Amino acid sequence: MTDSADTEYRVVADDVHKAFGELDVLRGVSFTVPRGTATAIIGPSGSGKTTLLRALAGLDVPDAGVIRVGEVEVDFTQPVAKDVLRRYRAQSGFVFQSHNLFPHKTVLENVTEGPLIAQKRPAEEVRAEAVELLGQVGLADKRDQYPYQLSGGQQQRVGIARALALKPRVVLFDEPTSALDPELVGEVLGVIRDLAVEGWTLVIVTHEIQFARQVSDQVLFTDQGVILEQGPPAKVLGNPREARTRQFLDRILNPL
Questions:
Q1: In this predicted model, what pLDDT tens digit does every residue of 124-161 receive, in sequence order?
Q2: For residue 254, with 0-12 CB atoms within 10 Å meaning exposed, 13-18 middle and 19 or more buried, which class applies?
Q3: Which residues of the chain have pLDDT under 70?
Q4: Which residues on neighbouring strands pair with residue 79, listed in sequence order?
Q5: Which residues contact 224 (CB under 8 A, 6 or more apart)?
Q6: According to the model, what pLDDT value does residue 9 have?
């Protein structure tokens, strides 16, 4: 682990393990996400992608390994104090696969909930920032509506605004388009693409290979709980080293 200034906005994972009962889901995962870059995680179902993302968020606590997210480094081989885990979780914003909005709250209330309740920030400041974020994701005119009044793509964009409202060091996306109708995928990917251009640090679990090629600075290919291949998208997606990576990409890009 390094102490250089840019570690504030990056992720460093070192030999991370996670099992559920007898099933080893992560088996010694190590990688680095530099500040202001986008990392795409691809791989077959059951390869550990979502568990890895949830470990970065502190939603699933690893069994072993060291992870630094933003300003907080945690050695999960040792018992982790609750206040440390709380600070660790506060470093990231998580965009869920299925939106996870509060159905009884308006769009604006969904976005302001975290900063007001968890961060206890001033209400006027939080509201002003939330309105600006909703404008950024193209939903300024929807702030007083409820989730049921929105399309799936609009709900997902609210989820992105909600994550950004926490001012996280890194934004984590778990298959952000998998629950959407095909015609709504583009609007969500467009927002994520804009965030990458703006210099947010992003980690994106995705099955959208062309999107990963266009947006990411690096691609991680996971299989059976390990990172089998990692590098720039031109290398991993265009000229993969591993036969397993080539087989996976061929099935995704040429399904028939």
A1: 999 999 999 999 999 999 999 999 999 999 999 999 99
A2: exposed
A3: 1-9, 256
A4: none
A5: 27, 47, 48
A6: 52
Q: Considering just the CA atoms, what is the radius of gyration of the chain in Å?
A: 18
Widest CA span in the chain: 55
Please tell me the total number of residues recorded for the chain in this structure: 256
pTM score > 0.85 for this model?
yes
Query: H or E segment at 218?
Result: strand 218-223
Quote the strand ranges of 143-200, DSSP E.
170-174
Q: Identify which of 39, 41, 40, 44 has the alpha carbon closest to the alpha carbon of residue 251.
A: 44
Q: Which of 51, 43, 42 is nearest to 23 (CA)?
A: 51
Helix, strand or coil, per DSSP, at residue 22 = coil
* Spatial CA neighbour of 35 closest among 169, 151, 150, 166: 169
Q: In what order do the strands lie in the sheet with 170-174?
A: 92-95, 170-174, 202-205, 38-42, 218-223, 226-231
Nearest to 208 by CA among 223, 228, 192: 192
Please count the helices (runs of H) and the strands (runs of E) in the chain: 9, 10
Q: From the CB of residue 131, how many other CB atoms can be counted at a distance below 10 Å?
A: 16
